[in-house]
Amino acid sequence: MASQLFLFGLLALSSFTACLAVDNNNLLDFCVADPKSQVFVNGVACKDPKQVQAEDFYFSGLHLVGNTSNPAGSKATLVNVAQIPGLNTLGISLARIDFAPTGVNPPHSHPRASEIIVVLEGTLEVGFISSGFDLRHISKVLQPGDVFVFPAGLIHYQRNVGSGNAAVIAALNSQSPGTISLASAIFGAEPPIKDELLSKAFQIDKKAISYLRSKF
């Protein structure tokens, strides 16, 4: 009986210790980002609360159509901690993505966030690739008012399949989701990935690798 009580107490103590090691909630009402701070933290240091103003929590611009005159035919207008300092530590951000006819948001991933989009206008094909050995391609065509979710870290894309312009609002559960565009990352990294490696990975010759690299 004594040994059972000791074991129970040990388990309770370890659980309590684990709880003490983590605080998932903010310890301040807000921590407005101070980009001028010399303090290096995982995020951005806090501005003096006495200097905080309403403008620190405000952004205007998502009503504006982005300039889609680029090779991809799309434009993302970001609203993260760089645009709204008050987002610091809150774990959220937004974006508006505009698409010209046939425009695409090329395959990419957000290493630190899941994403949910709502279609404002147009007709979009969206999809993501599951991880693991099966690499399932899960896709759907969306209409205005439709909502779709991209799980964190997975490769995903959007493509305008309608006859006119398209636009979405995207919400992400990180103040700084990060974006890794596959083609740009692979062929535009500096210093570059060796041609020998890419040639073997993609099963194409080095001339094709050089051509693709020249595009990025």
Characterization of the model:
With 216 residues, the protein is an alpha+beta fold. The protein is 20% helix and 26% strand. It is built from 4 helices and 10 strands; from the N terminus they run αββββββββββααα. The chain has helices at residues 2-20, 182-188, 195-202, 206-214; strands at residues 74-79, 93-99, 104-109, 115-121, 124-129, 137-142, 147-150, 156-160, 166-172, 180-181. The strands form 2 sheets. A 5-stranded antiparallel beta sheet has the order 1-2-9-4-7, with no helix packed on it. It has a 5-stranded antiparallel beta sheet with strand order 6-5-8-3-10. Strand 5 (124-129) and strand 6 (137-142) form a beta hairpin. Helix 3 (195-202) packs across helix 4 (206-214). The longest helix has 19 residues, at 2-20. It starts with a helix and ends with a helix. The model is unreliable at 5-21 (pLDDT under 50). This is Germin.
Keywords:
4 helices, alpha+beta, 5-stranded antiparallel sheet, Germin, 216 residues, 26% strand
Please provide a brief summary of the model:
This protein is of the alpha+beta class and 216 residues long. It has helices at residues 2-20, 182-188, 195-202, 206-214; strands at 74-79, 93-99, 104-109, 115-121, 124-129, 137-142, 147-150, 156-160, 166-172, 180-181.
